[in-house]
Design a protein that fits this description.
This protein is of the alpha+beta class. It has 8 helices and 8 strands, in the order E-E-E-H-E-H-E-E-H-E-E-H-H-H-H-H.
Length: about 260
């Protein structure tokens, strides 16, 4: 498993809907990407969460725009007129994360758009597994493109790594925020979602996903370990959480029963 690495050629526009100020860029392969910057508020931790979240979702058979490593050269963005954006681009030199831009996609509306019970259950399971707090009715982080549902923005996942106090304990949490999930009421096949996830997320798949994290994303200020040690900790979190999925699965099932 590997991601393509492309060079950013042209900054097009900011996407001010997100708090981290992602941007739309054109790369040297001729495609456009929504770019998450290493120089934004949560730094490379948000990119790590985006990378792991997106590729775990893809491994589960859910639709996620292709992720690529997008390299910003030292000269990139010097002519940008907006000083805030120019600073962000300067702080983001090196490898960033790009999501293939789905031209014409519309934001998923929980009241206007439909989704099947199986897909809804797989998405709720995914977000409980990743501890993703950002898939609510207010901010679904889903798009409808070609009449299909696509998942975007997993940067709020794995929130244990912001404090990094006890990753092993965090892996065993029931994920109480599932009560706010936009699809919890439609997730009537959570048991099936758990079975499908265990079949797809083998130890080798999880290890391959974690191995995609670049070393320099694992060297933030105050990092508690070496890149190799941190990579091992991410993998341990994911494998421990998967082995103990009944904890968050049972909680999600109880919450869903109370919501209908």
């Amino acid at each position: 498993m590997e991601l393509r690495t492309q060079e950013a050629l042209r900054y097009i526009a900011p996407l001010r809907e997100g708090g981290s100020l992602p941007g739309l860029m054109e790369a040297d392969d001729g495609f456009r990407y929504v770019v998450k910057y290493r120089g934004a508020g949560h730094g490379t931790k948000a990119l790590i969460a985006e990378l792991i979240g997106g590729e775990v979702a893809r491994a589960l058979g859910l639709r996620v725009p292709e992720l690529v490593m997008l390299d910003l050269s030292d000269d990139f963005g010097r002519t940008e007129a907006d000083e805030e954006i120019q600073d962000l681009l300067r702080w983001s030199r090196g490898l960033n994360l790009g999501l293939h831009f789905l031209r014409g996609a519309m934001t998923y509306d929980a009241y206007a758009n439909t989704i099947g019970a199986r897909e809804a259950s797989d998405i709720v399971w995914l977000d409980a597994f990743l501890t993703n707090i950002d898939r609510t009715a207010r901010n679904t982080n889903m798009l409808v493109w070609n009449h299909e549902t696509w998942l975007i923005d997993h940067g709020a996942s794995l929130y244990f790594h912001h404090a990094w106090s006890d990753p092993d304990k965090a892996a065993l949490s029931p994920f109480p925020y599932v009560k706010d999930h936009v699809l919890i009421g439609r997730a009537t096949d959570l048991e099936g979602a758990d079975e499908r996830a265990h079949a797809r997320l083998t130890p080798g798949v999880l290890a391959s996903i974690v191995d995609l994290i670049p070393d320099d994303w694992l060297q933030w200020e105050g990092a508690p370990d070496t890149p190799g040690g941190l990579r091992a900790a991410y993998l341990r979190f994911l494998t421990t959480r998967l082995e103990n999925s009944r904890i968050f699965l049972n909680h999600a099932i109880d919450v869903r029963k109370q919501s209908v």
